[in-house]
Amino acid sequence: MSELFSSLESDSTLAAATLFTRLATDYLAATRDGSGPVSTSRTSSEIAERFDEPLPLDGMPLEAVAERLRHDVLPDCNRLYHPRYAGHQVSPPLPAAIWTEPLIAALNQSLAVAEMSPVATVLEHRVVQWMCELAGFGADAGGTLTSGGTEATFTALLAARAAAIPDAWTEGVGADPPVVVCGEHAHYAVSRAIAELGLGLNNAVVIPSRRWRMDTEALALTLGQLAEQGRRVMAVVATAGSTATGSFDELEAIGPLCHERGLWLHVDGAHGASALLSERHHEQLRGLAFARSIAWDPHKMMLLPLSAGVLLVRDERDLDAAFAQRAPYLFTDEEHAHQWDQGPRSFQCSRRADALKLWVAFQRYGMRTLGEIYDHQCGLARAMHAHLEQHPQFEPTRRSTHSTGSCASRTTARARAGSPRRTSATAGSCASRS
Ligand SMILES: Cc1ncc(COP(=O)(O)O)c(C=O)c1O
Predict the structure, then answer these.
(1) What predicted TM-score, i.e. pTM, was given to this entire model?
(2) Per-residue pLDDT tens over the stretch 39-80
(3) CA of 148 to the centre of ligand 1 (A)
(4) Residue 241, beta-bridge partner list
(5) Which residues lie with the beta carbon below 6 Å from any ligand 1 atom?
């Protein structure tokens, strides 16, 4: 036992920590210089052979573990800092945010209740408030950090369900649930939430696109038809920065359509809401303030390390109503707790203090630099697009003004023999910081 405690002691020192931070800094340096591949050529099975070993009964020295990481883990990891890396919407993370990660783990504050995370809870409210202001929301707004856009959209639609069917938490959604209206290019997080919430996928009403954006005339027509048929609409979901093409739905047109009809507008800005930081691109989000909820992923275009998602709501009471959870041992009705505790507003119970790295990113880089980083990524997407336009094997389907981590331009590669083959070109929002 004393040996165990002494190894915990020695693992808590700066020297021990340096073993791991050195791995990280070496990795960043080695992947930024552009040598070597972006990704491994080994299959998962080949990699698995390296780790095909019994569960260790006894531990090994920390130095040996670090060496295993260096030799067995790092070489086949994707190199997100590599200048040729493009795609997947996963960023080469901002260094100051990387270095906040060990601190988040060391502090291990849980956002379940303020009592468990006195400062982190306050900081989460702080960053959420900043982001609400950027979105054009007023003093009643609020939100929560999430694991990402999927959880944010699920939670938004849960809140919309509570507004449309107030007793759904106890009684279920009934035999005739309302529908959710979304664009054909909505991320699957939307249809997944519709199914998860018990509405049934057949109650997703899909609006076709025009030039890769939700066709607003078709939306107006459909909303009119649904009203005539007496079908209730739980929410309309618009996308601000679509996954495949980076297109933004016209919130300025969609917002008033929803507003006139008293409909909940959720904007999935997981990819594109970071444009709010940019002088040059925030106009893409004109009309965003019509939204009643917004999903925004700082772990995409803001280059935060996974995970950092955010859900914003125009009225915090909507989020309070979403989870009608009773857990008296943890949640109390005291005014102070009600004001600060985030657990009642979150899908998760124990939750990491990811707000800390977001706060650090704002402290270190400020909105101006983060906005310029957004612009830089758009520039990379445009450059990639221009390059592909000249390429004989690619046919751009849409001029991308906004970068997207996965596809700035979906292209059709024409096989020389003439039979078309679909492929996708990834223009890196996150391709390169050089
Ligand atoms: C538009 C959009 N919404 C939602 C998501 C899901 O976000 P996450 O992977 O963070 O859950 C993505 C991409 O992953 C996305 O591009």
Answers:
(1) 0.92
(2) 999 999 999 999 999 999 999 999 999 999 999 999 999 999
(3) 7
(4) none
(5) 89, 148-150, 187, 189, 239, 241-243, 268, 270-271, 297, 309
